[in-house]
Each structure stands twice: as structure tokens, then as C-alpha cells.
Amino acid sequence: MIFEFKGCHEASSKCDLDIRQTDIGTVVMITELADNQGTTITNAAEILLKQVCEHYGLTPNEIIWIEHYSEDWIEGQKESFDIVTFNSKVFGSLSANWKRITLEDARSLQSGDNHFPGIDIHALETEVYCE
């Protein structure tokens, strides 16, 4: 589904949003759209997390957040998936960290599979306090 959000400097922005409740928790995949004229999902990661959580009543500490760029986002760019973890406030703001994962890892996470190579689910610690 298309999710419209306010990006950096209140720029009207949008992404594709897929939220799945699984046995391992809530898995959120956001996909950058080729026609998004606003802030990219990477540059708005912390802002987007807060807005998605507020809109859907999600708890940030219980989310597995996947950032996705399809091949059609930029010509010649390969499709990519990253797990994004958010740490508690650093210097007055949230700090995001990205870890590249494979398509297979992303599919496994979305299906709720916590037994696969590449990712240790228990090592994904997100400490976020949305105010």
C-alpha cells in the first residue's frame, strides 16, 4: 500500500509499505518509489519510523524494519534490501544502522522464519522512544 509521509523539511513524500504480523514479530518493509518526489526512505528513516508507528499503533521496539530499493528506482541499480535498526537517542535524535541482507533473507523475515542463515534475529536490537 502507498504510505504518504512528511519527510525532511516537511516535504511531501511517499513509499510502498508492507506490514506483516509474524511469529517473530511485526515485519515492516518499506520500498522506495520511483515517482517519489520527496525525501527518500533512507534519508527519512527515523522520521518514517515514527510516522508509521503513530499511524498504525505499532511499538518501535517490536518491529523488524526492512528497507527495499527495487531495480526500477534508479536505472542500472541492483535491487537491495537492508535491515534497519534504530538506537536510542544520540545527540538529541535517533540513530539508524543499516545491514545489507539478501532477497531470500527478506522473504524469510516476512514469512516469520527465524531459522535461516545470514541474520540473527535476536541480535537485532532496536531501542526507540517515539515522543
Indicate the topology.
Elements: E1 2-6, E2 12-22, E3 25-32, H1 45-56, E4 63-69, E5 80-90, E6 93-101, H2 103-111
Parallel strand pairs: 3-4
Antiparallel strand pairs: 1-2, 2-3, 4-5, 5-6
Can you describe this structure?
- The chain is of the alpha+beta class.
- The protein has one domain (2-123).
- It is 16% helix and 39% strand.
- The protein has 2 helices and 6 strands.
- A 6-stranded mixed β-sheet has the order 1-2-3-4-5-6.
- The longest helix is centred in the middle third of the chain and has 12 residues, at 45-56.
- Mean pLDDT is 84; it is low at 127-131.
Give short descriptive properties of this protein:
alpha+beta; 6-stranded mixed sheet; 2 helices; 6 strands; globular
Give the helix proportion (percent range).
Answer: 10-25%
Shape: globular
The number of distinct structural domains comes to: 1
Strand segment count:
6
User: Which regions are unreliable across 5 or more consecutive residues at pLDDT < 50?
Assistant: 127-131
Class from helix and strand fractions = alpha+beta
Mean pLDDT: 84
Number of helices: 2
Give the CA-CA distance, first to last residue.
26 Å
Major sheet: size, sense and barrel closure?
6 strands, mixed
Order of helices and strands: EEEHEEEH
Rg, Å, rounded = 14 Å
- Spatial order of the strands forming the largest sheet: 1-2-3-4-5-6
